[in-house]
Amino acid sequence: MSSIQRNMSLTGDASDQLNTLQKIGTIIGLSGLAIIVLSLFNNFEHKGLWLTTALVALAGGIILYARGLYADKLKGIKNHGVWFKSISSRGFLGWIAALILTGFYIVLYFHGELLGLGQGPDGTNTGIVGLFDPLSRFLSGNPASQWFVYGALYTVAILAFGIKFILKYKHNRYEQVRTLSVMFFQTAFAFVIPELMARLNSDDFSLPYNDLKNMWPLNYYAFEQWRVDQFINAQTIGLFFLILAVLLVFVVSPFLTYKYGKRWYCSWVCGCGGLAETAGDSFRQLSDKSMKAWKLERWMINSVLVFSVVMTVATISTYLGYDSEKYWFTKNAFLISVGVFLTALFLGVIYWKKNEIQKDALKGAIGFYVLTIGFIVLIAFIDLSQVKIDAASLSFGLNTKMYAGDAALRSFYGFAIGSIFSGVIGTGFYPILGNRVWCRMGCPMAGILGIQQRLFSKFRITTNGGQCISCGNCSTYCEQGIDVRAYAQKGENIVRSSCVGCGICSAVCPRGVLKLENGPLEGRIDSNQVLLGNDVDLMELVNKK
Amino acid sequence: MKHTIIIGNGISGVTAARHIRKLSDQKITIISAETEYFFSRTALMYVYMGHMKFEHTQPYEPWFWEKNNISLKKAYVKQIDTDAKTLHLSENETLKYDTLIIATGSKPNKFGWPGQDLLGVTGLYHKQDLENVEKYAPNNKVCKKAVIVGGGLIGIELAEMLSARGIPVTFLVREKSFWNGVLPDGESQMINRHIKNHHIDLRLGFNLKEIKSDDNGKVKSIVITETGEEIPCNLVGLTAGVSPNIDFIKESNIELGRGVKVNRFLETSAKDVYAIGDCAEQRDGGIGERRPIEAVWYTGRMMGETVAQTICGNRLEYKPGHWFNSAKFLDIEYQTYGWVFSKPRENEAHFHWKHEDDTKCITVCYSTVTNKFLGINTFGIRMRHEVFDKWLTEERDVDYVMANLAVANFDPELFKHYEKDILAAFKKNLIEA
Asked: Which of A486, A503, A533 sits opposite B298 (nearest CB)?
């Protein structure tokens, strides 16, 4: 393009300048952060007081900043200057933020000791972990861990940025209610309830840390032996949780996804989604909308899904194999039932939905199916616990441990998917890749819900006749990188497996073209392929394929 | 192989090209002097406001054109020789066509105001206009004040753009109330108040007398006709409507009026030459209540679809369905289905309802003779196109429409509904009337 892109200039936008309230908010918020960082080098007295001050300042700063940004503005879309601001357009600040975030995740996952975990006398905590001890003791009675620190900061982020989001969308009740929902589920289910439940634990009774809403396969360790054993040993209540976990995966989730689409989970309940929608909201426009990215997405997310299924099946079948007297299932019964279940599911989908599955999707599905069944057969014939794997040869010597086969699968999944993909890349790279790159490319849960949403759900985004003017706001602000406009301008409904139903496309549309709806299955996909307003003869001709 | 050339890469020309490609394998070339790729003109404002980058306004990725074998040529057509079926381009290039589609769109109106061609005076239509605004009004330090002349859809968009960058805007509107040649009073006045709530200096009932220049040929100020007041400013936006962009055709044999004259088949007076979109003028007057020239996004698209059928051997009349349209006035969305004129015509009545928050209202037009529903304007409440299209076709009466308004609601889930209030007000209104 020959013309100069002056619109990229940083000087261009007055809205980039902070007003007084925003400045005060920034100072207070940063001072809260400073207390937390200082605790690394300084063992505070009165930790409870300092921690309270830090968290209140952090949250208060964010909320004050948001009030400065939105409070005196009229109701409406607030995207002025998004592509001018360095932080939200992959500018210098964006890259700095990404480096800090990824650095934080690497320390969190792999070097908890740097945060002060167990660095004091007798293994007590110092540093940041130590700073959080009072809150942890208050909730669960135990000292903090780096995971507690993470959970607490995560919750504060969702709450404070959630309030910012609610102020931003003060004209949109769908956005507000949805945000209140993720704020609630994070605070109650992911943070407070599991900590309080830990108080129930005693010498002869113990439940694993249990975030009820964190379902398999997002929670990839949901059915590992130590967890299952703990549940079984915790008698009625433990069994209840174990059965609930299975019911959630096989009954509750399919039912809710049928009725409302995957959004019931991804943008109303899920913690990853919660953070993406609140703290990550400023980065939603950075998702890649190209056809290439879509192709990559389909391979990537389904590969992770297969990996998680294989890993879980391998794990369960292995402990069923060597500890068979402890459980109701034997290894072979388990493997056969999984194989039968997956085959029935696969054949059923092919049979009933053959008209809705495009050729390339069908090829992919067959490939992934064969791969999964192949692994299951393989697992049936070898005892993975007897296979020894030397991690050094696979990790360039970074990890020198020896693993049993099933443990190696788990460790690799936990490292590559659980830590690197969902954490370091998924959240650390918010300011570069957008706020949903994990949800779009990597989350196996989103993968399952997505397949279901595409094939067995009432949910769709309806296009409003011929009103679309192809402006592109919907596509730009789609955090999942869906080219919403491509459908809207053709008068087609949007039925995509990756859509998490955040509703922002509908919110930013200047012409009232998009509406998230649950409706009858008939006519849901490819509804009109027509732009209303034309005469009927022409519509028929245009629709001839 | 047959070669169809399309002049203009806007929504009309691009839609024609896409549909010709769907129906045939003939050679297709799109010529544009404005940009390399098709972009959404209506989205230019969002680029300036920082909501989008220019790339985001392009509905198709660059590979799309090659994949569909549609050639794009960046050039300016100087002349059309319909006898030799040849286009004369700038740089003395020529190009032969078998079929020609003129889809050159509009250009902003200028009414001969003194100073209208000064530096810092611009419309908002072409990409180059956006670049002008960016150049002369990058921020509120370079541009301490902007004046917009002409109170229509583009004027209010430009006002929104400039105030998004903190530039004080004076908005000169000839009419006594914003866009009241189209909108009924209740709506128009609500929008007046909304504009003022955005701290835009709205001046109703004023005309531009002249634009004054500084020593460098740049805008210095404007003068208002009625009061003689001189307003210093660094940018003047001329947004007093658009007219067909057809100057380059004047030398040819193609019959022109205000636009390129076409019949209902979108055929011009020259053989194998068609005109579609903003630049086409219906020879026999407007279709139904429509105007002979319709500078509307979706009519351009529909003409593109229609002409593609004709060119590919299925000669088809252009028959737009029920009128509809939409726009956005700052934060308030507007949709219209069917016909609601600014004043009820003979045997018509209006029912107007406005929410107390002053950002939502509707006006329903119906026949006082047959009670038939004729049209609706809605502000701040989204309505479902499909439903109104159906009701208009079925010729429903106004009572049916009012009683079933909830069916047509298209607001996002969990939004507050107002149908009950509206129906109650409507019934009360009937009793009083």
From this structure: A533
